[in-house]
Design a protein that fits this description.
Blueprint (H helix, E strand, L loop, with lengths): L1 E8 L7 H7 L4 E10 L6 E9 L1 H10 L3 E8 L4 E8 L3 H10 L4 E10 L3 E8 L1 H9 L6 E9 L2 H5 L6 H13 L10 H8 L3 H23 L1
Antiparallel strand pairs: 1-7, 1-8, 2-3, 2-6, 3-5, 4-5, 6-7
Length: about 220
Amino acid sequence: MKYVRLRVTFSAETINPVHEAICESSRVERDVLLYEDRSGSGRNTLLYRVDGDPDAFTGMLEAAPGVREWEFTSTKDGTFYAFVEEETPDGDEEILEALSRTGIMTVPPIEFAADRTATFTLIGTSGAIRPALEELPDEMGMDVIRVGEYDRRRELFDSGLTGRQREAVAAAVDAGYYDSPRRGSIDDVARTLDVAASTAAEHLRKAESRVMATVLDIDD
């Protein structure tokens, strides 16, 4: 069984209204689709984990055509869960049609980020995955992050990092900051990010705190 980990970039024609609102807001950084049920008659039921201000996200849902009902549950780390019922947005239909076929499935979580991208995993047979990717809208950009034999353990871990935290961790890894013995310094990370050393250190501290908390949640 094969898998493809993808990052797609949405155009103005293909982006979901709520995702577009996140990209334009400084109060919500990302939302992660954890589960979805599209079997209802004319309605979808979706469960998201959201990083940001619940009031801002409420405004996005209120403004989005097709969103009918929602409820939130807050968590202690500043994120919250959103249980949403909606009608399928027009822009999503072509994407769903391409990815809804015998021989493949989309495996949550699907991460919608503030840079107009979504990251997700497809699993199935190579004979089904390739034509599905070819039928995605031409307006969408697509980057293949990795491919291989599917291992669910890889997908169970969602670090929960924001885009900026992920950039900081990537810069630190590239610089050798986490090597033993350490090859790079926080100044090296700061130069890559073009920020002050104190800012780079803060990004890494927050990233490390979030990853460690996620690891403990999985162990529990």
